[in-house]
Amino acid sequence: MEQKRGTAEETVSTSMFYMWRCVICIAHADGVIHQKEIEYLRRIFGNMDRAYGLTEEQKAVFEDDLENPKQIRDLIRYINDPYFRSQLIYFGGLMAHADGHLHPKEDALLKKLRADQMASLDMEQIRADVHKAVESDMFRHDLKIDEIWSGSVLQRSIDALLLYFGIDIRE
Fold first, then answer.
1. Looking at residue 167, what is its pLDDT?
2. How much is the pTM?
3. Is 98 found in the same domain as 75?
């Protein structure tokens, strides 16, 4: 089970830990991990240690990853939290540009990560949620209009006549 995000008492979740390991993989994608990339990552890890208290084992894994490239496909499966999946794409993009040059291998890896992220979305569920929200908003709108225009028989007759001619004064 993933840790809650946003509290100082939390520890580094599995998803967060592996997200940063995957960011290191992106730094290695062009075949060279540049000094700017190492400095950036070490600053991040220092901040994580202050905020969450990294274990000695976690620190050692990060350092080993910096020295010895790993395969992102072996690590990414441990990022189960969608929040950290999206953060991987964000921080991976920053990492790919950290040395001032987007290498074609870094670009290809980022494109694959984005495509995988999109493929994992449940589009049918998203469409159903949007449809439900639109219906709910339309229903509330119709209720409000009915409150405003719930006049006499004469008002409803005029409205019906205008609608017959294609004029909707409620809009």
1. 77
2. 0.64
3. yes
